[in-house]
Amino acid sequence: MITITDLNFSYTGKKPYLLSEINLNVPQGAYISIVGNNGCGKSTLLRLILKFMLPTHGSIRINASRIGYVPQKKDTDSAFPITVKEVIHSYGRILHLHSIDVRSILSVTGMESQAEELVGNLSGGQYQRMLIARALMGNPDLLILDEPSTGVDVSSQKEIYAVLHRLNTEQRLTILAVEHNLYAAARYSSMLYHIANGHGHLCTPQHYLDEYMTREGSFHA
Ligand SMILES: Nc1ncnc2c1ncn2[C@@H]1O[C@H](COP(=O)(O)OP(=O)(O)OP(=O)(O)O)[C@@H](O)[C@H]1O
């Protein structure tokens, strides 16, 4: 679904590269979490995949009919006076959807009873579940998320990952997520893509736990 070939990237367009010799294949139905230390280039890689920027060298091919995107919470404005229902309607207009069933859209992430709520009154977990419901409008075959559980309490994290797990295993939705929650990455991903020193390595959750966690520090649930 995503094929990245010999990608190099720096914000200056010159060496040293932030991302170097990146080769990654995300097959249909996979759930891949991108992990690595702060500043290693995880979000940069997502922005390249989303075509917000171009690689310095190399190519990214995407074979998806529609991509759903859940941005980092800090990149969204939860103070804007708009209800959950209005968020769904306005996104439907952007997608040129003719009829919108707000209740059924929100029910995918268990948010139907918050439809009339102002987004500023939602908890971190509810807000994130609203963004996931919005990203699923128009039936994407690829869902990209940037830190889906950052700033979300543990019980809401469980709800978010239950939704993502269900979408991936039952509906075969391909998921690519930048992940700081290493417990969730190891528990729910089919594979992890670990970035360190500009280079990426695809590994199984077990391999990541065995090889990297001991070197990179403690395990956060
Ligand atoms: N627009 C930009 N212009 C120049 N440098 C940038 C830009 N955006 C990010 N960077 C730098 O690129 C590096 C990688 O940033 P990026 O956000 O991709 O890292 P990350 O792995 O997602 O980090 P974190 O885990 O902290 O979110 C950082 O040193 C950051 O300061």
UniProtKB/TrEMBL annotation:
<dbReference type="GO" id="GO:0005524">
    <property type="term" value="F:ATP binding"/>
</dbReference>
<dbReference type="InterPro" id="IPR050153">
    <property type="entry name" value="Metal_Ion_Import_ABC"/>
</dbReference>
<protein>
    <submittedName>
        <fullName>Zinc transport system ATP-binding protein</fullName>
    </submittedName>
</protein>
<feature type="domain" description="ABC transporter">
    <location>
        <begin position="2"/>
        <end position="221"/>
    </location>
</feature>
<keyword id="KW-0067">ATP-binding</keyword>
<dbReference type="GO" id="GO:0016887">
    <property type="term" value="F:ATP hydrolysis activity"/>
</dbReference>
<keyword id="KW-0547">Nucleotide-binding</keyword>
<dbReference type="InterPro" id="IPR003439">
    <property type="entry name" value="ABC_transporter-like_ATP-bd"/>
</dbReference>
<dbReference type="Pfam" id="PF00005">
    <property type="entry name" value="ABC_tran"/>
</dbReference>
<comment type="similarity">
    <text>Belongs to the ABC transporter superfamily.</text>
</comment>
<keyword id="KW-0813">Transport</keyword>
<dbReference type="InterPro" id="IPR003593">
    <property type="entry name" value="AAA+_ATPase"/>
</dbReference>
<dbReference type="InterPro" id="IPR027417">
    <property type="entry name" value="P-loop_NTPase"/>
</dbReference>
